[in-house]
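Archive maintenance. Older records in this collection stored only the sequence; we are now back-filling the structure field for every entry so that each record is complete. The fields below show one back-filled record exactly as it appears after the update. Entries are processed alphabetically, and Methyltransferase domain-containing protein is next in the queue.

ARCHIVE ENTRY
Title: Methyltransferase domain-containing protein
Organism field: Aureobasidium uvarum
Length field: 259
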Amino acid sequence: MPSSTPSFGEIEYWNNRFTKEDQFDWLADFALLEPWLKKAIAETSGHGEVLHIGCGSSALSTQLRGLVDSPQQIHNVDYSPVVIERNRQRESEMLRSLASGIEPCRWSTLDLLSASKILDLGKSGDKYDVIIDKSTSDAISCAEDVAVELPYRINTINKDPSPAQKWERLYPLHILAIHLAYLARPGCRWVVLSYSDSRFSSWEDATPSGLPASNLLWEMKKHEKIEQPPDPEDMVHRPPTLHHLYILQRTDVVLDQDT
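Back-filled structure field:
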């Protein structure tokens, strides 16, 4: 029988999905997440750069506009060019119907697991103070392991002295952590909403030689269960839906391109 598991690591899956899907929000609604996002952004004095990863067709991209001084602070990125182009067009139509002079957000297609794409974005000077991750880590964790060459292209300044080159398949969340750390300023908050109570437990495992350790790049500041309020129109008694909020903070360990 064919597998029923979505191919979350395949661009074809996401392009096909977004061709059919108009709008969908993973996990909790904005009201549940808003206080945490407000706090994270406020700690940057309200002028920080916000990276919204895996924005998809979520309404969150639009809702974030109310939390910043300028929409240009918000950079929405997704693996799928289909959804990025549609979101950009919809925002443009929305702004044309409003008063003139209102700025758009920034929109980009970005493969979060591609070192070359991350390095290109870093070369453009983009560094972020808040990273918003609404179940994107969940989706990436469900993808296939990533084949990378070690020592890894993005590495610490004081890395192990020239280990022999080799290829190894790695859990994709490790690669995501390194890539986001490369794009983050020291002190950046990575705000994660997940269905998993152990999303980052793999960081406790031994790190292969030639790969920066995720737990040296990010410090776990908070892990809290948050409950999704029940639907008031639901007449069936259901157990509460619990999600997991993680807040990680970028350390001052420096990353650079390995030459």
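Update note: Residues 81-96 form the longest helix (16 residues). The first strand starts at residue 50 and ends at 53.
Entry marked complete.
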